[in-house]
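idk why but the lab printer keeps eating my pages so im just putting this in chat instead. protein + GLP:
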Amino acid sequence: MPTTIKLDFQRDAIAVARKAADTIAGAVRANPAVVLGLATGSTPEGTYAELIRIHKEEGLSFVAVTTFNLDEYLGLSGDHSQSYRQFMQTRLFNHIDTRPWNTHCLNGLAADPELEAEAFETKIRSCGGVDLWLLGVGSNGHIAFNEPGSPPDCRTRVISLTSETIAANSDGRFYSDPKDVPRQALTAGIATIYDARSILLLATGAHKAAPIAAAVEGSPSPECPASFLQGHADCTFILDADAAGDLSAN
Ligand code: GLP
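predcted complex ->
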C-alpha cells in the first residue's frame, strides 16, 4: 500500500514549530470550537510557545477549544511536576484562554485505570471526535506511549514503558535518573489517534531520522507504531532537515 503521509520539509526546529503553530491556529480560526489532540515531549514545546505568542499578539482565542492529551504517567497526580498535565499547564494552558473543563488529560492516579481509559474514549466520542491530533515520535517509533508491539487497533489503555523510552525521558530534559521514571503509563491507542480527522506529526533532530524513515518507507508494522499512520486520509509529517534525513532527497 503506498503511503498517504504528506511530508513537509522545514529548515530547522524553529521553522517546524512555526509551521505547526500556524496550522493549529488556522484550524482554530476556521472552527473556534475545534477539538485538538495534543502531545508532550520536547518536540512540541516550540509550537506551544508560538501558539502563546499568536494568542497574546494576534488575539487568537482558545476559549471554545476542547483538547485531549495523548498520555499520562501512571501513578503521578496532575499536580506532580513531571506529570503531563503539569507539562501542558506550564507550556500552554496557563498562558492562553482555554477553559480548564475543556482540557482533558488522563488521570494517572485513577483508582481504576481501565475505567479511566474507557471514559477517555467515551469523552472523545461525545465531543464529536478529534479534529486535529498533534504528535511527536519516540526514537523507537512510538506514538503517544504506544510502544513497539502495539497493534493498529489498540485503544486507550495501560502500557509498560520500554527501557529505551525510560532512558530517553531521563536524559536530563525531564527526569535525570531512569530509576525515577514511572514504569507504566495510560496512553491513547493507535486507533484512537488514527480516528482523528487530521494528524500532524512533528520530528526534529538526527535521532528521529531512523523512526521517521521506518514510519514513511517501511511496511506498516508493530515494530514501528508510527508506520500505522500510513493510509490515514490526512496525515502530515513536519520534519526538520535532520529528522528528514534522506527522505528530502527523494
Ligand atoms: C514521550 C511521549 C510522546 C513523545 C515522545 C517523543 O515518550 N509520550 O508523546 O512524542 O516521548 O518525545 P520528544 O519530543 O521529547 O522527543
